[in-house]
Every structure is written in structure tokens, then in C-alpha cells.
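User: My instructor asked us to take a sequence, write out its structure as C-alpha cells, and then describe one feature of it. I'm not sure where to start. Here is the sequence I was given:
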Amino acid sequence: MSASLNRLDMQQVEYRAVIKFLTKQGKGPQAILNEMKAVYGPLCPGKTMIYKWCGAFQMGRESIEDKPRTVIHKRGRYIRERRALSPIFDDSFIDKIQNELLDAEL
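Assistant: Let's start with the prediction itself. The C-alpha cells for your sequence are:
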């Protein structure tokens, strides 16, 4: 199972690298979608994924890898942070919201 998961992860990284490259060339998300459909056919990533990553790269993101998921132990509870595509929601924002939710539950 890990071999197929690893292959899937490598495909995602490949797609993101293509999206990043074409975004840096000044192409918009619809043009990128059309080019990727022509190359990858039925294996092409979805429109939503292309638009999200294109937006992230336009906002200045450089990494094509997922941000690591972490589990935080807080007051006896486990909270899973979500991976963020956008730099809009940084870690301090997520921590603030999580703390407010935990305080409200007590």
C-alpha cells in the first residue's frame, strides 16, 4: 500500500511542479488546465486543485510539497491541524482559533 501511496504523492508533486512552472510563465489557471488536460488526459488533476495551487503560487508560495500535518496535544485533547495551501491562514491564526474553541468548550 505504501508504494501506491508514494506513487500518488509523486504524481501530486509532479502536477504541482507543472502548475508552478506554467504560473511563473504568466499563464492563468484556465490555460494551465487546458494544457494539463492535453498532456495528462484522464489523469489530469481537477479544476479545483489547479485553481487553488495556481492561486497559491501567484500569492508567493514556492514549495510544491504539502505542509506536514501535526497533532497537538492540548488540555487532554488531540487536535489535527489542516494543511493550508494559502499563506493567508498562518500557524498563529490557526492556534488562536483552536485556543478560542477549546476555551469555549470548558
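For the description part of your assignment, you could build on this observation: The beta strands are 71-74, 77-80. Try explaining in your own words what that tells you about the chain.
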